[in-house]
Structures are given as structure tokens and as C-alpha cells.
Amino acid sequence: MGTIFVDNLEPQSGTSLTLGASGDSIKASTGAVWTGTVAESSSSSIVENGSNSNGKFTKFADGTMICLMNNTLSTPAVTTDIGNGGQVRSANQTQTLPAAFTDTSYQVSFSVGRLFMAGLSSNSEPSSASQIGYHLRGWSSATGDENVKVSIMAIGRWY
């Protein structure tokens, strides 16, 4: 696996970190080093929890990662006819993930405020491991006279 670098990590008296075999290490920004092998695990222990301006993410020891994002769209126009029984959509919206997945096989779920639903811009799966493209959709044209909150959850693999 190699070396894992972490910030704000200090070894404390009486604590230990067990790693599998030689050659791999965990290095803190303070210069502390733990060595051994970091092995994949089938347990669901949380390996890393983090957040940034794009949202929150949780990485699990089994390789699963969950990303949570919120986006507020100001008066989105949902007017482009997509010819599906009167359904219309907005212009493409993008959301950068708070942490990148290993590939594009992750799953995405949307929760959208009143009058709208959301779907991926592509017809099948995300086209980027680090960014989601989506449209708001509705059954009739709307210009939206208020902000629309879009909550996004993506679940996939971080290793």
C-alpha cells in the first residue's frame, strides 16, 4: 500500500497503532511515524472522516466511501423540453465531490426541494470520479422564484 500521510496526528503515551507487515508506514505532519502494513479489512471501521467546501466524506476500512453534498440553486430555470411526456429539465449543474472515488461506478442519490426532481446528466453512471453532472427535472416549465436545495449522496469505493 505504501505510505499514508495524515495531518494533526500525535502519538500519545499508552496508545498503539497496529499495522500488518513491514514496508508501509503512516506519517503525521508533526514527523511522527508508525510503520507496518496497512491491510484492507472486511470490517466497517471508519478510516477517515473529513469535510471541505464541497461537502463531507467518510471512508470505511472495507473500501466503501460515502460523500454527502448540499447545493442551493438560486432561481433555477427548468424549461428545456426533453420530449418525455412533457418533462422539462434545467441546464447542466455540477457538483465537485469532497473526495474522489477510484472510478465512475459509484451510485448517486438526490433529494430536491419542492417542484423538482434531479437526475444525472449522463444516462447511466457518473462520467467523472471527482465531479457529478446533473439536471433538475420537472413536469412543466418553471423558472423557480426561490432557492432550491439539492442534497446529494454518493456511495462508491475509495480503494
Give the secondary structure arrangement, pairings included.
Blueprint: E1 3-6, E2 24-28, E3 33-36, E4 46-52, E5 55-60, E6 64-73, E7 78-81, E8 88-90, E9 93-96, E10 107-112, E11 117-120, E12 131-138, E13 148-157
Parallel strand pairs: 1-2
Antiparallel strand pairs: 2-3, 4-5, 5-6, 6-13, 7-8, 8-12, 9-12, 10-13, 11-12
CATH architectural group of the largest domain: Sandwich
What does the radius of gyration come to?
Answer: 20 Å
Please give the order of strands in the largest beta sheet.
4-5-6-13-10
Count helical runs. 0
Instruction: Supply the number of structural domains.
Output: 2
Main structural class = mainly beta
Could you estimate the helical fraction of the residues in percent? Answer: under 10%
Subunit arrangement of the protein: single chain
**Largest sheet geometry:** 5 strands, antiparallel
Point out poorly predicted stretches.
none
